[in-house]
Design brief:
651 residues, alpha/beta, Rossmann fold, seven-stranded parallel beta sheet, five-stranded parallel beta sheet, globular, cobalamin binding, Cobalamin-bd_sf
Length: 651
């Protein structure tokens, strides 16, 4: 072929149908549908996306232009980079100031910490601390129930510093999110928001550049909600709070300027990126419906890496999870980002883990160069299609919530909690059956982990009251909020915060307690035939057992029933799993199980599902067939319970 012929040659344009034909051939009889994936959002992900999947009219959209799905700045992070807003852990104001000084000198770009009663123990020190960072860095604070006294302290700090420069960022609260955690508002609904509006109006005069209204979807995410539910809740809460401000005399422009949205970012990378892009689209359309000007329809986004996805055991894997989630958040176009420390679930965060969390964002900025490109996901056939589908489904759910009276009424009726529980149960079932993997937890567990069981602080009304006790009468002495909380009776069932790994962690700690009592948490593996015939199932069972903190004690290659009995008699285990291939099962049959259970009162399991004689295996003493679809939590919990009963009997 000459060079001229080569230049004139072109490739055939491949159609989706051509790909389907090739894919069908490679599947060897399996349906094409087996390549599609259903998500918790009831979205079917295709194995291949094409230009035809782009939403209509998207080619005209640019970053910084309505509907803002591509970001609120035309140049993306090049015009204004996102703020590294990792929350600093502390016990008092002095420690907070010292640790924040370190963080800001090492790359942090926003003042962020958990707002706790401890900071109000010395009001002079608090005001001095707040004054010292004036105007150098924006604030990124979810003030929660302590918003009023904190705003008062900031106003004093602003005056003490001379008032020549303005504080920026947000010191915000979401009363609906707080109510979702404690079962209601502290006072009657209209009365509460009338008072809240007055507090925010005063803050707007004293701190004009500080945003004070938070739309916080993190509690819903950490209760198990999916992306569609989070988006619908965000829009519903935004509409609810905006309307409350308007009802109390605020102007639309002023009210919109005070709102910031806060999301948790989960493990489904592209879904989370699309979630943030869809959030901006939805809020732009919502603000437009209120009559807002284009510039006022922009959504300011704060985000944090998910607590729901993190684990206590094998904690260093949390670094990878947080990195993945932070990456998704940045691609989604956030303005503030908190990256959780890898040891935060265990309650042992320190300067080292905080540095790693901070450096995760610095790597994304300075080494991955993510701040150099405006909307890196823009134009992706997959992400754009997912953004559109998420927005459509979220809008439908928002309308359903609105039909039920809005976000607060949906919580009061318990309907919203029920929707989230259903999603959470689906997630938990897939983790329990190991259909979804959590590395180091339900697969590839490391039994050498030496981790102490943390004391988990539950969110309770008494704790809220104690928090208020610490501050009421100091900076905000005129408030009656504390007394209202004491008299308040929850009007609905609160959300239940959780982490997916908790059931496995409970079993791991239970196994560790048994070891401390002198009981070895072991299960014997009766390995039939030569290594290559039993290894696959023995490895599978070993991995399953380790997820519950149970050690596997393997026999050698067993070829006879008598050899199996000899191994059992020499083992400290009182529960056993028979492991072998189908030929071994057919050869030994239920006779092996009958012989074992005849001589000993042991619990006996079988690895895999036998091709034949299943009823005979069950009759002969097999409790359960352990396979890839087994509920690991149920099986392992039963094993540990049996060990605990045995330990108590000895005692």
């Amino acid at each position: 072929m000459t060079i001229e012929n080569m230049k004139a040659t072109s490739f055939k344009v491949a159609a989706f149908e051509d790909w389907q034909e090739k894919a069908a051939a490679s599947l060897k009889g399996k349906p094409i549908d087996s390549l599609y994936t259903n998500t918790y959002e009831d979205i079917k992900l295709k194995p291949l996306y094409t230009k035809g999947d782009l939403p209509d009219g998207l080619v005209r959209d640019l970053p910084g232009q309505p509907d803002y799905r591509r970001g609120i700045h035309s140049l993306g992070y090049q015009s204004e980079s996102w703020h590294i807003a990792n929350r600093v852990f502390y016990s008092d104001v002095e420690e907070l100031k010292g640790k924040l000084d370190i963080a800001l000198s090492k790359g942090q770009t926003a003042i962020s910490f958990d707002v706790k009663p401890e900071i109000f123990s010395d009001n002079r020190a608090l005001v001095s601390f707040l004054s010292s960072f004036k105007n150098k860095y924006p604030l990124s604070l979810d003030a929660g129930l302590l918003q009023t006294p904190l705003l008062a302290a900031l106003a004093i700090a602003s005056k003490d510093a001379g008032g020549s420069e303005k504080l920026t960022g947000f010191v915000a609260a979401d009363p609906v999110a707080e109510a979702s955690l404690i079962g209601g508002l502290p006072t009657e609904e209209n009365e509460f928001f009338t008072e809240w509006s007055k507090v925010l109006d005063e803050a707007a005069q004293q701190l004009p550049e500080v945003k004070t209204v938070l739309v916080n979807t993190v509690p819903y995410h950490n209760s198990g909600a999916n992306a569609v539910q989070e988006l619908a809740i965000a829009v519903s809460t935004g509409v609810y709070l905006l309307q409350k401000l308007l009802d109390n005399g605020w102007g639309l422009k002023k009210a919109l300027s005070k709102i910031v949205f806060h999301f948790a970012i989960g493990s489904n990378f592209f879904m989370e990126t699309a979630k943030l892009r869809a959030a901006r689209l939805l809020w732009s359309k919502t603000a437009e419906a209120f009559g807002a000007e284009k510039e006022d329809r922009k959504m300011v986004l704060s985000a944090e890496t998910s607590k729901f996805t993190k684990t206590i055991f094998d904690p260093y894997v949390n670094m990878l999870r947080a990195g993945n989630e932070a990456f998704a958040a940045v691609l989604g176009g956030i303005q503030y980002l908190h990256t959780g420390s890898f040891d935060e679930p265990a309650g042992s965060a320190n300067l080292f883990s905080e540095r790693v969390a901070r450096n995760t964002q610095l790597v994304l900025k300075s080494e991955a160069h993510l701040e150099k490109v405006a909307d890196p996901a823009g134009g992706s056939w997959y992400v754009e299609s997912l953004t559109k589908e998420l927005a459509e489904k979220a809008w439908e759910l928002f309308l359903e919530v609105d039909h039920k009276g809005g976000i607060y009424e949906a919580l009061k009726s318990g309907w919203l909690q029920e929707q989230i529980v259903q999603t959470a149960e689906n997630r938990e079932q897939e983790i329990a059956t190991r259909k979804k993997s959590m590395i180091g937890t339900n697969v590839y567990a490391n039994l050498s982990d030496d981790i102490s069981e943390p004391v988990i602080q539950e969110i309770q009304r008494d704790y809220m009251i104690d928090s208020l006790d610490a501050v009421i009468g100091k900076i905000a002495s005129e408030s009656s909020l504390k007394d209202n909380f004491k008299e308040m009776k929850p009007s609905f069932t609160p959300l239940k915060l959780k982490r997916l790994a908790e059931p496995y962690e409970e079993m791991r700690f239970k196994a560790m307690k048994l070891e401390k009592k002198g009981v070895d948490p072991i299960v014997g593996l009766i390995c039939l035939g030569e290594l290559k015939k039993h290894k696959a199932r023995a490895d599978f069972i070993s991995g399953l057992l380790s997820a519950g903190g149970i050690h596997a004690e393997r026999s050698g290659e067993l070829d006879t029933i008598s050899a199996a009995i000899q191994f059992i008699n020499s083992s400290k285990a009182r529960q056993f799993v028979i492991c072998g291939d189908q030929s071994a099962y057919n050869s030994f049959g239920p006779e092996l199980a009958q012989e074992i259970t005849r001589e000993h009162n042991f619990k006996l399991y079988l690895a895999g599902i036998p091709d034949e004689k299943q009823s005979e295996w069950k009759t002969s003493g097999i409790i359960e067939f352990l396979h890839v679809r087994s509920n690991a939590i149920q099986t392992l919990s039963a094993m540990l319970q049996e060990m605990e009963v045995g330990a108590n009997a000895k005692a």
